[in-house]
UniProtKB/TrEMBL annotation:
Protein's name in the database: Translation initiation factor IF-2
Family: Belongs to the TRAFAC class translation factor GTPase superfamily. Classic translation factor GTPase family. IF-2 subfamily.
Domain (Tr-type G): residue spans on this chain: 84-256
Keywords from the UniProt entry: Cytoplasm, GTP-binding, Initiation factor, Nucleotide-binding, Protein biosynthesis
Residues in coiled coil: none
Function: One of the essential components for the initiation of protein synthesis. Protects formylmethionyl-tRNA from spontaneous hydrolysis and promotes its binding to the 30S ribosomal subunits. Also involved in the hydrolysis of GTP during the formation of the 70S ribosomal complex.
Subcellular location(s) of the protein: Cytoplasm
Positions bound to GTP: 93-100, 143-147, 197-200
Keyword Cytoplasm: yes
Gene Ontology annotations for the cellular component aspect, listed alphabetically: cytosol
Length: 381
């Protein structure tokens, strides 16, 4: 249980809700049966009734909920169905070192090559392709505004990115947020590629950056380490292809990126908002399986049928395979960034799961409010 209403809790342990209201009254708490109480109160009530109340984490609770519908989040299916998927990359670095400029440069370079004259849409993630050693390779970039990149990565969890590009401005050098970004990548266990940016500037000193990062244990290949350093200019568009190649080579060398593309899709919400004309709009990243228009999905507390999918060029697509980002229309509500999405059997199941999640979120929120209210009363008395 996690912040539940007395009625729900009473049902779970098979007692009369009125008895719980009575017990709480005896403890000096005025709560109605339909009101939500916090975990501590549930534990207390349980103890009084000789029950052991186990408070489970929201993640575990959600897993249990899905299991009750015979769904296993993260299920990769049969290994024989696995195929190679593109790496998912996050760009990190200190303020003003050129993260946004670089993401723009990568996207623009690809539009010119790919869809002649195509206008890119900002959907929070995009996929590009690049030729590496004679083979066409794809890379997915998560494109979140600089100042939000950390919090967003934290919210989405480390599982959403395979690799990080660490941008360091050659005229400024290693700065506090460079180190913070580095620590994030280390904690998440993702390999990094260092992009030494702004090499067009006369005061650029790439050698200094190699030396500085070596002190932090990030050793360039040319010094015998295993991290690729690439000198670029996001502004003057110098060596963007070289950076993409380094990303692919690093992914090949240190990651075994495979996914099952034949199962029902599962993945993560990158960002979502309410569009005046189109209703709730969510950019999702498919992590396994293939998502198709017309399928029933649940995304956090939202549900619906995929009405349309739109790619980063504004084109409608009918399916999305692993590592592909897409904007999804047709949800009942706006899910939160970092929440999972998954395809389920039908609309009914989607709605049932979404409703249960929503009720739980509401209960948790109510319980939180109650705690605050009780605290305020306490402070006032
Ligand atoms: P935040 O999102 O605020 O953390 O910054 P950012 O890392 O996204 O940096 P942004 O791309 O906004 O670039 C910051 C400034 O550096 C801008 O004025 C860019 O024009 C400039 N800039 C970025 N890349 C280059 C480059 O390769 N060369 C030069 N000369 N300037 C650059
Ligand atoms: Mg930025």
């Amino acid at each position: 249980a996690r912040g539940a209403s007395l009625t729900d809790f009473a049902e779970k342990i098979g007692v009369d809700p009125a008895q719980l209201v009575q017990m709480l009254f005896g403890l000096g708490e005025m709560v109605t049966a339909t009101e939500s109480v916090n975990d501590e109160t549930l534990e207390l009530l349980g103890e009084e009734l000789n029950y052991v109340v186990q408070v489970v984490s929201p993640e575990d609770e959600d897993r249990e909920l899905l299991e009750s519908f015979d769904i296993e989040l993260g299920d990769e299916g049969d290994e024989s169905d696995w195929t190679v998927r593109p790496p998912v990359v996050t760009v990190m670095g200190h303020v003003d070192h050129g993260k946004t400029k670089l993401l723009d440069a990568i996207r623009d370079a690809n539009v010119i090559e790919g869809e002649a004259g195509g206008i890119t849409q900002h959907i929070g993630a995009y996929q590009v392709s690049t030729e590496v050693e004679g083979t066409e390779r794809k890379i997915t970039f998560i494109d979140t505004p600089g100042h939000e990149a950390f919090t967003a990565m934290r919210a989405r969890g480390s599982q959403s990115s395979d690799l990080a590009v660490l941008v360091v401005a050659a005229d400024d050098g290693v700065m506090p947020q460079t180190i913070e970004a580095l620590n994030h990548a280390k904690a998440a266990g993702v390999p990094i590629v260092v992009a030494i940016n702004k090499i067009d500037k006369p005061e650029a000193d790439p050698t200094k950056i190699r030396g500085q990062l070596t002190e932090y244990g990030v050793i360039p290949e040319e010094y015998g380490g295993d991290t690729m350093f690439v000198e670029i200019s996001a502004k003057s568009r110098i060596n963007i292809e070289g950076l993409l190649e380094a990303v692919v080579l690093t992914a090949d060398a240190s990651l075994d990126l495979q996914a099952n593309a034949v199962q029902d899709a599962q993945g993560i919400v990158i960002e979502a908002h309410l569009d005046r004309g189109r209703g709730p709009v969510a950019t999702i990243l498919v992590q396994r399986g293939t998502l198709r228009v017309g399928e029933s999905i649940v995304a956090g507390p939202a549900h619906g049928r995929v009405r349309a999918m739109i790619d980063e060029y504004g084109n409608e697509i009918t399916e999305a395979t692993p590592s592909r980002p897409a904007m999804v229309l047709g949800l009942s509500a706006v899910p939160g960034a970092g929440q999972s999405f998954l395809v389920v059997e039908d609309d009914r199941m989607a709605r049932q799961i979404a409703e249960k999640r929503e009720a739980r979120e509401r209960a948790a929120l109510q319980a939180k409010r109650r705690v605050r209210r009780t605290l305020e009363d306490f402070m006032a008395s």
